[in-house]
Amino acid sequence: MKSTYFKANFNIARKSKKNILLMGALIVFMVFFVLLVGNQNLGDNYRQWQSYYDSLEINISYFNGNLLRKQKYKQTYDNLNAQEGCIASLQNGEVLESPQTYLESSLNLFQTMLDGYQNNYLGASTLNVPPKYQLRQGLVTYKYLYRHHIPPAMSSKVSVTYLIYIVNFIAVLIFFYILLIANDVWMVKLDHETVLRNIPYRVEDEVKGKTMINLVLTLIPLIIGLIGAYLFAGLLNGFRSLNYPNVFYFNKIRAIPIWLDCLIFLFYTAVLVVFVTSLTLLLNQLTKNVYLSTFIGIALYVLSYLPSKLLKAITWLPSVYLNVNDVLNGTVASKTGFAGLNFATAAVILLIWSLVCVVWFRYLVNKKGAAR
């Protein structure tokens, strides 16, 4: 790849007002969103469990004497009452700032909620119980804390829990950031023909150069944002160890230290940049329109929210793997029923589709050049 050609493209990209605005917005959001988290008590476990507690009380009231004479209904009734006691103990631990009580109650609660699925909560028709895979995610997190003797944080605003909160949040939306960075990746060349006209290049130069530029424009702001989020939240609300766990899926749901989770998140994001850059190069060439390219990219992402049965049928498409959070925490594997759909498998599928897009793009460009 010609260094002169790369520098010319990089100068165009780094001076783009759109790119400067996007990078600045990403960093500012990641660092300062903790102020809203603290002010609005986002991720507050007390409020979360209070809502579920209310649902428990309503469903417990459905069980009358006739139902309780049947063992299968009594099993549900006893389970709901046990959950009610766990939540009361958990909330007491949070209010009294007793990490040990909070941890033990959380472990008991998640296990009891999973036990309730043994008879599928028969009789509790309106109970808003989370799906089993989400309960397992919570259970492995608290087991990790218990096993490693790490006191649980009871809010999302201290350094490490805010870092976990923002990583999980950004992982859902990072595709849109990359798409907006890359949506004019080929159109920029057409808009700056006078700058690049006399610089010889190959299609391979275009693909490699644009990919490298988009990697820089994505990963550098992300790294700055992650470090800034941890430090700013720590200065405001106190620091906690980066060994605090986050949910992760490989061949089963487990918990890993957040520092390792951040590294895997950055790696997978880099793969996503490669795919999105390849996709937008192709879409720009096909549509000759930035907005249409962006719309198609968003449509691909929306497919990741299809019902489980439909999602299972399109696991060969890249759409399933564009929500980074769902890939890393095992939601994709759970919804599709394919245990092998972890971040490594998803990365391979995205890279294969990247190659398909690049080959198609190269064919179209060479065909256009030959026609001239």
TrEMBL record:
It comes from the Bacteria. The keyword Transmembrane applies. Keywords: Membrane, Transmembrane, Transmembrane helix. This is ABC transporter permease. The chain crosses the membrane at residues 20-38, 162-182, 212-236, 256-283, 290-308, 343-365.
